[in-house]
Amino acid sequence: MLGIGTPELIVIGLIIIIFYGPDRLPQLLSKVSSVFNDIRSAGHDVRQQLGREIAKVESDIVNFGEASHRVPQAPPSHHDGDADENHTDQTPDEKPSE
User: Which terminus of the chain is less hemmed in, N or C, by CB atoms within 10 Å?
Assistant: First the structure.
């Protein structure tokens, strides 16, 4: 638990008793317990929400993969190279340089 052992917990407990007094200790422990329960509940809610979001993304990926198999493929092109292989940067009035 965060590297805190029994001796450290005892010292922390004694410091709390000194500052708050033994009569207010039950109230303090109740509040601390309530805060920890709220944090635990919030963490649980976050994990559930993340799980739902991950499941939706996984479902979208699967649906995308299935849809990509249904897309018709274009026929292969019989032309290898540029669309205009004979195109030069010269105007019709210019003579090709030799």
Answer: C
> pLDDT of 39-68, one tens digit each?
999 999 999 999 999 999 999 888 887 777
d(CA 21, CA 38): 25
Q: Are 16 and 25 in contact (CB under 8 A)?
A: yes
Q: What is the Cα–Cα distance from 13 to 25, expressed in whole angstroms?
A: 10
Q: How many residues does the chain have?
A: 98
Structural domain tally of the chain? 1
Q: Can you give the residue range of the structural domain that contains 46?
A: 23-68
| CA gap 77, 3 in Å, rounded | 66
In a domain, 50, yes or no: yes
